[in-house]
Amino acid sequence: MNIAQIRLRVICMPLKSPFHTHLGTVTEREGIIVEVMDSDGVSGFGEGVAFSTPWYTEETVKTSLHILSDVLIPLLKKKQINHPEDAAGLFKKIKRNNMAKAGLEMALWDLYAKKNLLSLSSLLGGTRGEVASGVVIAADSLSNSLTQIEKYLEAGYQRFKIKISPRQDYSLLAEIRRQYPELPIMADANSAYTLKDIDSIKALDDFNLLMIEQPLASDDIIEHSLLQKEIRTPICLDESIVSFEDARKAIELGSCKVINIKAGRVGGLYEAKRIHDYCVGRGIEVWCGGMIEFGISRAHNVALASLPGFTVPGDISASNRFWEEDIITPEVTVENGFVTVPKGPGIGYGINEKRLRETTQFEKIITF
Ligand code: OSB
Ligand code: MG
Questions:
Q1: Probe residue for ligand 1, chosen from 20, 29, 56, 265 as the CB with the greatest number of ligand atoms within 8 Å
Q2: Atom of ligand 1 nearest to the CA of 134
Q3: Label partner for 75 (CA 20 to 30 A): which of 91, 115, 176, 331?
Q4: In terms of DSSP bridges, do strands 3-21 and 185-188 run parallel, antiparallel, or are they unpaired?
């Protein structure tokens, strides 16, 4: 791959409505857009999905920018790579910083796919023409949760993920279940519980949840395996899985029955695909997670979720779930509960240059 330059942009946009979790409220989103251009002038795009503050993982926009500019891009400058999979090997000696790695690696996948006139989906081994769409309900009250469910049901979403915590769990889910006895719902706790709360977690078995996501701390891998033996609801891990090795260990221990795969959290599409391949055939379901992302990362998610093991509707919502106007064209849309997987080269979406320009707060060009 003949890289000529890399352009890093930090963009910022307000969310259409606040996103509440027990860890805090997100009202605006900063993100890093990575553009890798080759000597023919073809560009591949990736997105660094770290947040402004380290509430979800330890990375931030600033640490990602530092690791990209001062560590990863210099490595790529020194060593010519032939395939995006080589980037994973190159970045291996750098510990963690997975979202920074993924932002760059995903741009290389898009570029490679475009150069070879393949869709990213087919390059990755995708088999689906459309992916099932789910949405997250992250509201601050029961009534706001119910209003959002009504709105997103009308928009066609197939699966609803409700953010919960010990302060808002049983009564919230009970009322949702009372009004929607058949609705495919799950809960995401973002590590709000400890094993001491086992009775309140067990009680959630009443609601026929598809799964409960990350009830305990990210390093509570043994505790999750103890918990799974005590509850009927399948445990899905999110924050606990930042690598293939984490997935292998969690599965061997029986800590989960489902894994939420986010390419950003695990360091890129190569590692995401390895986790997917390992889960398929071991009876572990996977689905594609979301990061309140802009269109570039959303497009990568659509391609990833087209792989055969992604059997559960993911957190793959339309661009208009979060944004007045996204940075890609066309925007990601949900029709009859599905997003169509683009067939064009690479991620299959173009850049909305005007929107990208007006949301850019900082940019930096590194020439090779
Ligand atoms: O825990 O899955 C999570 C968003 C940001 C950080 C962590 C999580 C989320 C979501 C997905 O719940 C929201 C989305 O992008 O659809
Ligand atoms: Mg989660």
A1: 56
A2: 16
A3: 115
A4: unpaired
